[in-house]
Amino acid sequence: MSHTLEERCRQLIMQRKYVQCQKEIETAMAEDPHGAIPHNLMGILMEKESDHVLAMKHFRAAYALDPTYIPARYNMEQYGQMCPTGTFAFTDEDCPYLVKNMI
After folding, report:
1. Cα–Cα distance between 26 and 73 in angstroms, integer?
2. Residue 83, Cβ density class (10 Å: 0-12 exposed, 13-18 middle, ≥19 buried)
3. Sign (positive/negative) of CA torsion 50, 53, 59, 65?
4. Which pLDDT tens digit goes with each residue over 33-92?
5. pTM of the prediction?
6. How many CB atoms lie within 10 A of CB 74?
7. Cα gap 85→75, rounded to integer Å
8. Cα–Cα–Cα angle for 50, 53, 55, nearest 5°?
9. What sign for the dihedral angle of Cα 21, 8, 71, 27?
10. Cα–Cα distance between 35 and 40 in angstroms, integer?
11. Are the C-beta atoms of 95 and 76 separated by less than 8 Å?
């Protein structure tokens, strides 16, 4: 089992351990304030906590920090719609249609 930040957050969110997940993301942001991954994960967490506006801000921040980071782009496309139809992208593997089209 992978112990990446993305996988830890995926598990914590599935278990609804939002406070613990937020602490891990905040630690990652403090260690790498210009990293796209923590902002994408914070966006997912904010969506799960029903704060759509803040979630979109974090997805956009992740994309602005690294436009090649596919999960941020995927989440912006999915959750920027009035009626989202997909699931969250924690990693590249969660958004195969974008990975396929970018090759």
Report:
1. 21
2. exposed
3. negative
4. 999 999 999 999 999 999 999 999 999 999 999 999 999 999 998 888 766 666 788 888
5. 0.81
6. 24
7. 11
8. 70
9. positive
10. 9
11. no
Residues 6+ apart with CB under 8 A from 41: 5, 6, 9, 21, 25, 28, 90
Choose among 34, 30, 79: nearest CA to 53.
Answer: 79
| Tokens matching residue 8 | 């830890």
Helices 36-48 and 5-14 cross at an angle (nearest 10°) of 0
Structure tokens at 10: 């995926």
Phi and psi at residue 69, in whole multiples of 5°?
A: -80, 100
